[in-house]
Every structure is written in C-alpha cells, then in structure tokens.
UniProtKB/TrEMBL annotation:
Domain of life: Bacteria
Keyword Transmembrane helix set for record: yes
InterPro entries: Big_10 (IPR041280), LD-transpeptidase (IPR050979), LD_TPept_cat_dom (IPR005490), Transpep_catalytic_dom (IPR038063)
Record keyword Transferase present: yes
Chain segments annotated as transmembrane: 22-43
Pathway the protein takes part in: Cell wall biogenesis; peptidoglycan biosynthesis
GO biological process: cell wall organization; peptidoglycan-protein cross-linking; regulation of cell shape
Ranges for domain L,D-TPase catalytic: 266-393
Keywords: Acyltransferase, Cell shape, Cell wall biogenesis/degradation, Membrane, Peptidoglycan synthesis, Transferase, Transmembrane, Transmembrane helix
Protein name: Ig-like domain-containing protein
Secretion signal, residue range per the UniProt entry: none
GO CC entries: extracellular region
GO molecular function, one term: acyltransferase activity
Length: 420
C-alpha cells in the first residue's frame, strides 16, 4: 500500500528565521489490493513551494521587494503513484502561478507526452495515452505572481506487465466464413467488469443486424445476431480495450478493429428418420446423400452444429472419447478421411470406414459422427467451410451445448441475449 498526499506550505514573511512557522496539512488515501492485483491509482497530489520560492526578508533597500503568494501544483496522478492506468490523461493545476512548460516522458527514454495548456495557463492536460510498465518523470516550469520562474519535479509508474490484459478474436481479420459463425473473444485474464468490456466492443454489419453478447466463462464471450448472419455481408468488430479495467486490477492493453465476411448460405440437414443428408445452397436443395449416425449407446447430438475445422486426414483414437482396449465399444485407431469437425467433444462429418458403408441410409453404427460415402464426405469437405451450418433432426440425444463447439444457435434468443 502506498499513500498519496496534498501538502500545502505557508510562509510568514514578517517573522525572522527562528520564529518562522510552517503549517503542513496532509490528506492520505490508501489503495486496496484486490485478488492479488493492485488497483490503478488516480488520486491527486499537491506539491508546495521549494525553499527558493520563499519571499525575501525585508532589507535596507529604499525599494521594497515584490512578495508573491506561495506556489503549489496539484497533479493527477499524484507524485509517487504506482499502477497508474496508461489510458488516464495526467493533469497539472497551478496555484498562485502560471504554467510555462510541462515535460512528461519515461525516465528510461522515449517520446515526450503532448499536452494542452488552458487559456489561463493554470492547467495542463495530456492529450495522448501513456505506455505500460514505465516510470514517468514530470517537470513543471512555473512563473509566480512576481514573475519568478521555478520548477517542480515528480514521478509516477504505470501498470506493470503482470496487470496487463489481452484478448484474441475469432474469426480472423479478413477471413470469409459461413453465416452460422458466432464471434468469439478470448481474454487472457478473467473479466469481472463485463459491462465495461462489452461497452468497449462495438460490432456492426453491412446487413444492419444487431446481436448480443453471451459469456461462456469469465475468459470467453460470444456474440451473434438473433438469426444467422446475412449471406455475403461484412461484420466489423471494433475493440477499444486499451485502458479498460477488466476487474481485479487487470487493464486492457490494446485497441484493434477487425472485419470478416460471410459467403453464401450453405446448410446441411441430417435427418435420422430418413438416414439422409440434404444439402441446401442459398435455400435450394442441390444434393442428397445417405448417412449413418450414432448407434443407440452413442446417439448423435441434435440441433444446430457449426463447422469448426476441416482435415483431409485426421487420426481417430477411441481413447479421445474415453474408451480403452477391452471396452465393448472400443475401436482400433484409424485415420479418418475428409473430416469436418462439428463439436469439441468429437462429432465429425467424415468418410465411413469400409465396414460401415453397407449401413449408409439403413442403420446407425457410428460413435456419434455423421458417416458418409467417400463421394459424400469429400463433397461436404469441398463445399462447406468453417461457420457453415449442419442441422441434425430426430436423434435420441439433445442439442449441442453452447460451449461444445459453436452450439450458440441452440440457445433460445431470449435466454442468449438475456443472460444475467
């Protein structure tokens, strides 16, 4: 904990040195340490006159000397402050003086911070942000009421790397995705000031669609509109997170704007009742393929699923879904062809093994995946991309959860947008 103070100094010029009295008033403020992080300091501090600014004692001169009122400055942040938010704009206010010049820059070197002086030259305000992890030196040149020049100097330190917070967004900038792709932002630190973070992120689309944030965890937030994104539209995400307090003393360290696009509408409807996949492009049925889904002990999840990633070849291991040799449902390792991931838990659209080809369109034999012929799996791989939508109907399992891949579209809109 550190203390910040306001110190005022008064000089009784009519008394000699021995009887001269100093009156010191101090106001102290503490900074609370929360959850191991140090809160940013924004208190003000006032620095009184130096010894060189004391009015001169009377002399035998025939011309009396000019007596000036004591000079002081009030600053934000205060002298010696630490963990200062670099987005804060330091200020200096002079009392009984005008400000001639302010020099503010990192002690280790760097650009001087620009600022603006008020019309009466009594207040200076920085007009550009600071940098993280820097000790700043501030030198203020003052002119008192008698025209005498003096300098006040002080320092403060900005937020250290341990209290910086970053974020990473998907989809990538300039990417093209399907109309079902929610926006996902992952934060390097837990966010407890969720309202502040949401207000710092502005999302617009050329289709004019608006949406809502939905927090998966304190480190992950999603955003989607009520209905799928309009095809062939552009979505811009403007993240102005520099200086935003995430909570627990963690401060956002960047501003960034990203734009991604959607392509045309591509939807695959998989129906367990008919054991088929129907492919719709821009609302028109273009292909139908037989499929096999999850057997009764491993039913395929229902509802909307979004293509997450695609792999021409991908190793499949029973251990990844909790099976071990000797288990009744264990299968030998193999490399799946034309595999398109739908969930984090291991549901894919992929080419069925040779032994399962006879089940296509007839019975379910998979562990939850959508098995297709070689032709069908490659067609899906070539036609669909991340963000495109698969809708699974009439299975024994419930819909994919919001945190298992991109199950966002399975959450009713009022619940999604109205998250407490």
């Amino acid at each position: 904990m550190y203390f910040e103070g306001t110190v005022a100094v008064q000089d009784n010029a009519g008394q000699d040195k021995k009887s001269r009295k100093w009156i010191i008033a101090a106001v102290v403020a503490g900074v609370l340490v929360v959850g191991g992080g140090i809160g940013a300091a924004f208190a003000t501090g006032m620095v009184g006159p130096s010894a060189g600014d004391q009015p001169a004692t009377a002399t035998a001169s025939a011309t009396p000397s000019v007596s000036a009122a004591p000079v002081s400055i009030t600053t934000t942040p205060a002298d010696g402050a630490v963990e200062v938010n670099p987005a804060s704009m330091p200020t200096v206010t002079a009392t009984n003086a005008t400000i001639k010049k302010v020099s503010l820059k990192p002690e280790t070197g760097g650009e001087t911070v620009d600022g603006v002086l008020s019309a009466d030259a009594a207040t200076w305000t920085a007009d550009e942000p600071l940098v993280f992890n820097a000790k700043y030196a501030m030198d203020v040149v003052l002119i008192d009421q008698a025209g005498k020049e003096s300098t006040r100097s002080q320092t403060f330190e900005t937020v250290k790397p341990a209290n910086e917070a970053n974020a990473f967004m998907y989809p990538q900038n300039a990417s093209v995705v399907g109309v079902g792709q929610p926006i996902e932002i992952n934060f390097s630190e837990p966010v407890t000031n969720k309202d502040a973070v949401e207000q710092a992120i502005k999302i617009t689309s050329t289709s004019g669609q608006t949406g809502a944030f939905h927090w998966i965890t304190d480190n992950k937030v999603r955003y989607r509109p009520e209905a799928f994104w309009a095809p062939n539209s552009a979505i811009t995400v403007d993240m102005q997170l520099f200086g935003v307090d995430f909570g627990n003393g963690m401060i956002g360290n960047f501003n960034e704007t990203r734009t991604f696009n959607t392509h045309n509408t591509r939807l695959a409807v998989v129906d367990n009742a008919t054991k088929t996949m129907q492919v719709f492009i821009d609302g028109q049925l273009v292909r139908t393929f037989p499929v096999t889904l999850g057997e009764p002990t491993w039913p395929s999840p229902s509802g909307y699923q979004v293509v997450v990633s695609q792999h021409e070849k991908l190793p499949f291991r029973a251990e990844s879904i909790g099976l071990k040799p000797g288990d009744p449902d264990y299968y030998e390792p193999f490399d799946a062809s034309w595999a398109s991931r739908l969930t984090n838990s291991g549901v894919f659209v992929h080419q069925a093994l040779d032994g399962a080809v006879g089940a296509l369109g007839r019975i379910n034999v998979s562990h939850g995946c959508v098995g297709m012929s070689a032709e069908g799996a490659k067609y899906f791989y070539d036609t669909f991309e991340p963000g495109d939508v698969v809708q699974v109907l009439n299975t024994e399992a419930g819909p994919v959860s919001v945190d298992d891949g991109f199950g966002d579209w399975n959450v009713p809109w009022d619940q999604y947008a109205g998250q407490p």
